[in-house]
Amino acid sequence: MANSKNYNNLSQVEPSLESQDYYSDEAFEAELKHVWYKNWIYAGRDSELARQGDFKSLRIGSQNLLLVKNAQGEIKGFHNTCRHRGSELCSEEQGNLKSKTISCPYHRWTYSLDGELIRTPNLIRTDDFQPADYSLYPVSVKRWKGSLFVNLDKSEIHSFDSSLDPSPNHLDSWPLEELVLAHSYETKILCNWKIFWENFVECYHCPGIHKSLCDMVPIYQRTFVSKQDEHGWEKHQNDGDPRFCGGLKHGAKSWTTDGQLQGIQFSDLTTNEIQAGYTYLQSLPSVFIVAHADYVRTVSLLPDGPETISLKADWLLAKESLDLEQFDLSKIVDFGVEILKEDAEVCELNQRGVKSLAHKQGVLMPQEYDVVNFHRWLKSQFHA
Ligand code: FES
Ligand SMILES: [Fe+2]
After folding, report:
1. Largest CA distance in the chain
2. What are the pocket residues of ligand 1 if the criterion is a CB atom closer than 6 Å to any ligand atom?
3. Residues in domain Rieske (predicted)?
4. Which of these, 197, 179, 180, lies nearest to 189 by C-alpha position?
5. Domains of the chain by range and CATH?
6. The complex's ipTM?
């Protein structure tokens, strides 16, 4: 069958990954090394570290990191490991270092918020020990539109800009930097991190799993993500029917329980962005951002092990929206949490089933073209 121009879907089925890649320790360790320790990983909002001495810790695989705000207002990243004999420095998840120093609880070596070793109690001097040689191990931190990313790879083989898909300026119409964190939702999902992404990038599952979402975004009922997912899509390109051209159902303006705006519509959105109703940006392997007309949601994940992820969703709004008299945050949050729970359930089903001794490898159907793209990206990480 001849394909339409720019037709997205696959013209043939493709093999999925081997089943053991979703649960074996070996695969997980290799992915930590080549993917999670090499890429820019989402680390939250910079508003979480508002004052000098504020800190948060972050675990990526076996690596424990510490982010702190220094006297100049910069956010510094370090391995959460003392340079003396390697003790963990900070065991709390979040807080403020009242002393404005980082003190190791073991032998009390003390570091400045910039990571320099500034105190070594009971030190017996020797000629060969220079404190300047024992600063904390640094970790790269990038602030981007109010969000923080860290990178464990000192050589930064992946540039930050190249990690934002489709492009760093894709959400320029949204005032991301100024938005405030209105709500967070955290959960553990018992699935491999790749199962989460595979599920996220396809809508083959949408009609059976996401009733409210499919009502809001009619093209999803048809298992398509964009109009070009359909063979012969050119026939419908001027239809204006959201079942064919995508976007929200007629009359809806935002992903909320009643489809209406809850916050103030962002003022710089283009007509296309308003009509689309949702704009996605992702940064593999740790976060996707969905921007709507009146709010933005970030969904980030960290791998706890081969078969568990920690998921966090943050809802970001303009401060003025939160102050509106009729503002009802639950209309925004409930809609998103329902989708997250529906996805979590099928991700866990997938994880449990994939361990069957009989199941060596799955098969990807035409609508799952973006799962193939995800697998290509994954393979490319091992050759970077
Ligand atoms: S391990 Fe930190 S001071 Fe000894
Ligand atoms: Fe889904």
Report:
1. 82
2. 82, 84-85, 87, 104, 106-109
3. 41-150
4. 197
5. 1-37+170-384 (3.90.380.10), 40-157 (2.102.10.10)
6. 0.97
